[in-house]
Write a structure and sequence with these properties.
The protein folds into 2 domains: about 120 residues, Helix Hairpins (Orthogonal Bundle); about 100 residues, no CATH class. It starts with a helix and ends with a helix. Helix content is about 85%, strand content about 0%. By secondary structure, the chain is mainly α. Belongs to the bacterial diacylglycerol kinase family. It is a multi-pass membrane protein. One of its GO terms (cellular component) is plasma membrane.
Length: about 230
């Protein structure tokens, strides 16, 4: 009875460890989200038993490495709360193990899914070439994602109020650039950029963004849209 209780406690402690990592480690949440996406893709593409086993092993490898990394960081912070070169080496080495596991998962995913995704990608590219509106939506999504990442690096807690870069300016200039690629009309493109400039100017006048932040947003919006249109329709 005692051994059975100890076994149950072991499972409970392990579950607590996973839950703690999910609550406190952003990377663990990202790994879990990607794992769910990979398993959904495995079902959609009807992977073979061997392919499914490779995906499961790769997922387990990444999550286990992240758990070890979390454990090492906790122990190092407990033993050496002050900065120490050896503590940094321990943390960096544990992080390197996670990186190696993630690279392994990417390689496995590449070989497992590549042949199955190709036909879908070809059909998707054909649709994109026929309808530039799809390219605009992709450019808009890419612009916003890159903008949010930029703001997160500067610890901005309200993503729509200030920070580098200006998301409003990025979106406005993304859409203005898309108008140019879709219409190839000089007057329509000029009007679109004037409106985008007014959006950027209103952010500066309202004291929400600095001039540098709206310029960075404008460059991001134009660059992301131009690159996508050139790659997909060029």
């Amino acid at each position: 009875m005692g051994s059975r209780r100890r076994l149950t406690d072991s499972f409970r402690c392990a579950a607590d460890g996973v839950v703690h990592a999910l609550r406190t480690q952003r990377n663990m949440r990202v790994h879990f989200a990607l794992a769910v996406a990979a398993l959904v893709a495995a079902l959609l593409f009807q992977l073979s038993t061997v392919e499914l086993a490779l995906v499961f092993v790769s997922i387990s490898f990444v999550i286990a490495a992240e758990l070890f990394n979390t454990a090492v960081e906790a122990v190092v912070d407990l033993v050496s709360p002050q900065y120490h070169p050896l503590a940094r080496i321990a943390k960096d080495t544990a992080a390197a193990a996670v990186l190696l596991a993630a690279i392994n998962a990417l390689v496995v995913g590449y070989f497992v899914f590549l042949g199955k995704i190709d036909p879908w990608m070809l059909r998707g590219l054909q649709e994109l070439r026929r309808d530039p509106v799809y390219v605009t939506f992709i450019a808009l999504g890419l612009t916003m994602v890159v903008g949010f990442i930029g703001k997160s690096r500067h610890r901005v807690y309200n993503y729509f109020q200030g920070g580098m870069p200006s998301i409003h300016a990025a979106v406005a200039f993304c859409l203005a650039t898309a108008v140019g690629y879709i219409t190839w009309n000089g007057m329509a493109t000029l009007l679109a950029f004037v409106l985008a400039g007014l959006v950027a100017q209103s952010r500066v006048e309202g004291g929400i963004h600095t001039l540098g932040e709206v310029v960075a947003g404008a460059v991001l919006g134009v660059a992301a849209t131009a690159v996508l249109f050139s790659l997909i329709q060029g």
